[in-house]
Core-2/I-branching beta-1,6-N-acetylglucosaminyltransferase family protein
Amino acid sequence: MWKLTRNEEEDYFPSSPRKDWSIGLMKFVLVLGIFMMGVVLGLCLSSTFTHDFNSRTELFFPSTMYSTNCDKDCLSIKSFLGPKHLKHSMTDDELFWRASLVPQMEEYPFNRVPKVAFLFLTRGPLPFVPLWERFFKGHKGLYSIYVHTFPDYKLNVNEDSAFYGRLIPSEEVYWGSITLVDAEKRLLANALLDFSNERFVLLSESCIPIYNFPTVYEYLINSAHSFVDSYDVDTPQGRGRYNRRMAPHIQLYQWRKGSEWFELKRELAVSIVADNNYYYIFRKYCKPSCYPDEHYIPTYLNMFHGALNANRSITWVDWSRGGPHPASYGAPSITAGFIKALRNNGTFCMYNSKSSSICFLFARKFAPSALAPLMNLTSEVMGF
Ligand SMILES: *[C@@H]1O[C@H](CO)[C@@H](O)[C@H](O)[C@H]1NC(C)=O
Ligand SMILES: *[C@@H]1O[C@H](CO)[C@@H](O)[C@H](O)[C@H]1NC(C)=O
Ligand SMILES: *[C@@H]1O[C@H](CO)[C@@H](O)[C@H](O)[C@H]1NC(C)=O
C-alpha cells in the first residue's frame, strides 16, 4: 500500500511558520474590514438620519422598484368610489367579479348623492345626442353615461358634451344572441364601479326621453320597484322558447318574456352581474330562435327578485304593426299631440302601489330624421 511519508505530508500541509504568517495576514485583513465597515456605516447613518424616510428606504430599495404615478395617496378612496376614466383592460370575468363587490357597512364615509346611470347599447352613431345633451344640461352630479358600441367605434362629440369619454371597452354584438346579454352585463358592470350609481337604465340609439330630467330622476330614485317587462305567455314566442333541458334549474312555470330595455336598482344590477349559473344555462340552451335578451333577465328576476319588480317597462314602444321589429317614427310623425299622447294618453299604471298617470319616461323607436322636430318640441311639450 502506498503511504505518505512525513516529508511528503509537509509538502501538502504547509509547515507551521508559513501557517503563522498567513493567520497574521488574515487577522489584519479582518480588522481592516471591520474598521472599513464601521466607517461606511457611520457615514451612512450620519447622512440618512438627516434625510427623510424616503431617502432612507431608497438607500436599501432602489427607487425604480417603487415608481408609481401616485404622489402621496396611492390607495385613493376617490378613484375607488368611481373611476374617472372608463378605459381599462379587465376581461369580462375580472370586471364582473370586481363589479359584484358590495360594501358590508350601511353608512358611506362620504356624502353619497345617488345617480342614475344611462346605459346606451348601440351599434355606433347616436343620432339623438343633441336631444340628450339638452336633457342632461344643468344636472351634473346626478347622472352618469355609459356607451357600448361596436369595438373600435369612435364617438365623435365635443369635449364639453355629456357623452365625451363615456365609451366603455366593447365587444362584438349579434342580434338575438347571448352576446347582447354580455353587452348588457358589461354596461351594468362598468356602471357599478361607480358607487354613487343607484339606478340603471338601458337605452338604444333610437330611444328618446319624453319627460325632463328632474321628473325622470325623482321617478326612478324614489321607486320601490325596478321596471323590467316580465310576463308569461303561452305562445310560440313565449313559453314556446323554453327548452326542457333547462330543467330542473329553470322550470316552465318560471319562464318569462319581456322587452330587454330594463331599469334596475343597484341591488338587482349586482345580482345579475354576479350570476353565472343561470347565465350559462341560457347561453347553452336558449338558442336558436330563443333570444336570450328577451328572456334571461325577466326569468331570472321572476325566480329570485319578483317582489322588487314592477313587471312593466318604462320605455314606450309600438308593436301594433306586427312583425319582428316595432314601428319606427320619423320626422312626419313628430307632432306635439303625438308626444303628449306618449306622456299621458289617459291610462294609469301602478307606481309605489298607487295609481299614476306617468307610465313611460322614454320612448322608442325614432329615426334620425325625428331629431329636428323633437328639438323644436322640448320646451313646449317635454319640459326641458
Ligand atoms: C311582479 O311579479 C312578481 C312575480 O314575479 C310578483 O311577486 C310581484 O308582486 C309583481 N310586482 C308588482 C308590483 O305587482
Ligand atoms: C295608452 O297607451 C297604452 C300603452 O301604449 C295602450 O296600451 C293604451 O291602449 C293607450 N290608451 C289609449 C286610450 O289610447
Ligand atoms: C319648429 O317649429 C316652428 C314653429 O312651431 C315651425 O315653423 C318649424 O317648421 C319647426 N321646425 C321643425 C324642424 O320642425
Remarks:
- Residues 16-48 form the longest helix (33 residues).
